[in-house]
Amino acid sequence: MSDKLVNGCSSGQKNYSHCNGTAQQKETPTQGKDVRVWCDGCYDMVHFGHANSLRQAKALGDKVIVGIHTDDEITKHKGPPVFTEEERVKMVKGIKWVDEVVLGAPYVTTLEVLDKNNCDFCVHGDDITMTAEGVDTYHLVKSANRYKEVRRTAGVSTTDLVGRMLLLTRNHFRQGSAEYDIEKEAAKSPWTGCSQFLPTTQKIIQFSDGKSPNAGDKIVYVAGAFDLFHVGHLDFLEKASKLGDYLIVGLHTDPVVNSYKGSNYPIMNLHERVLSVLACKFVNEVVIGAPYCVTEELLDHFKIDVVCHGRTPIAMEDGKIDPYAVPKTRAIFELIDSGNEMTTERIVERIISHRLEYERRNQAKEKKEIEAFEALQRQKQTQKAG
What we know:
Layout: E1 4-5, E2 36-41, H1 48-58, E3 63-68, H2 71-77, H3 85-93, E4 100-103, H4 111-116, E5 121-125, H5 139-143, E6 147-150, H6 158-167, H7 201-207, E7 219-224, H8 231-241, E8 246-251, H9 254-261, H10 270-278, E9 285-288, H11 296-301, E10 306-309, H12 325-329, E11 333-335, H13 344-353, H14 355-385
Parallel strand pairs: 2-3, 2-5, 3-4, 5-6, 7-8, 7-10, 8-9, 10-11
Antiparallel strand pairs: 1-4
Helix pairs in contact: 6-14
């Protein structure tokens, strides 16, 4: 499939004097032209790890252009994607650091694709991505010194999230002394085998736009779990944002979400959900651990003008208290129809219904990554010995 430009693309001046390795600073534009950075991948089940990589890429240039592989390409090299290419395009376009999206990026990144999209260099995380034949997908741009690496976000991957759903694990929202423990198994890939994310205030600051509402801004508030942030959430937040000037999202704690969702929900813990929502371009602020019932204190503190909820059922607190009673009394409550049928439960259903396929995909991916990691370790030991 040929490259399909999803957003407009403008020309840029080339500057090929880039070094391979971990990127440290932003490139200097030539003759006042924008530095255009190319990122590509599957972007399946887009999470804050993807967003963090794109945030780092944006810091190295002026424009971030994201190439997305088709469903057929992903199935050939990696196994079936969870989301369709249309859904994956929409999710990436919703990330605040993305300027353009191109559907149909080749699995092996070529110099031709960089030139066609007027990109100066390619950026990827410091993990290894390989074709079905075990070939480094970035070997061509690495050889041409048009490749930079950024740090992969430890503790999250699509493989790991799929595993949480298949195994119905609950370790991702442990509390108390074990809350930040990292579980590692000997057979797990060093890149996708880490099942606990380590949150920091710095990471939250990096994801936040840090802007307060202006005087006179109409402030909109929504609340929920926003678990496995997906296209349904994205469409809902876009519509909510259009009801005002400043959108605040309240995120419920893990125990509260589990009380009305049950099973091993939320699939992503509160720390992970905070970053996933903050990465959305429609969101201005997040309330971490928002009360389930929208209170007068919350409305007054944030000077909220509109409170919204989607079409999903509203669970009563203690089985009888309407969590939106106060905004309804103030006549500031609105129901929004996002026009999207996607829910977190539907994603889990997709995974469970194709369980064997996804298990085989995860096992094959981890096996290739372990072999590549071990080969790198041997190479490093040989270099040291020499």
